[in-house]
Design goal:
mainly alpha
Length: 149
């Protein structure tokens, strides 16, 4: 039985994401940061907004904003001012609201749902390479630093 190429790419991408998410998810739960993934998803909307405002590839601005979000979270977490989950909630909703306000000031019609949720059936071969190369890097870092984790 032959499958359509878009279904094959979706399955390959889904397996790659599942492998990475399984490994990283364990560390997120162990560090009591269960809200971290949701927080990154909220902050990614700010990356989309910045990418649209400055007319840059949104993938790059999403990565930059999520990286800055994670660094800011680690810095604030080391200060021990608030619990990690509290920091995650504050930062996530701040980033989400700033992103939504920024998008609302743009003079173009934007489908926010497509940016937030995407569609795995539209994944390209290039994106599959990004998933597996990024996953390999993540798994290599986890293996390399296993004892410190």
């Amino acid at each position: 039985m032959m499958m359509d190429p878009f279904l094959t790419r979706a399955i390959i991408a889904g397996v790659g994401i599942a492998i990475i998410a399984g490994v990283i998810g364990c560390f997120v739960v162990w560090r009591k940061m269960a809200y971290f993934g949701d927080s990154l998803a909220h902050s990614s909307l700010l990356g989309v907004a910045l990418g649209l405002v400055i007319n840059v590839n949104t993938n790059l601005t999403i990565i930059a904003v999520c990286f800055a979000f994670a660094v800011l979270l680690l810095w604030l977490d080391q200060k021990k001012l608030l619990a990690t989950d509290t920091l995650l909630g504050i930062l996530a909703h701040a980033a989400l609201s700033i992103g939504l306000v920024t998008i609302s000031y743009l003079n173009q019609k934007i489908d926010i749902h497509s940016y937030l949720f995407g569609d795995i059936l539209t994944v390209t071969s290039r994106e599959i390479w990004h998933i597996y190369i990024g996953g390999f890097v993540v798994l290599a870092v986890v293996i390399w630093h296993w004892s410190s984790f």
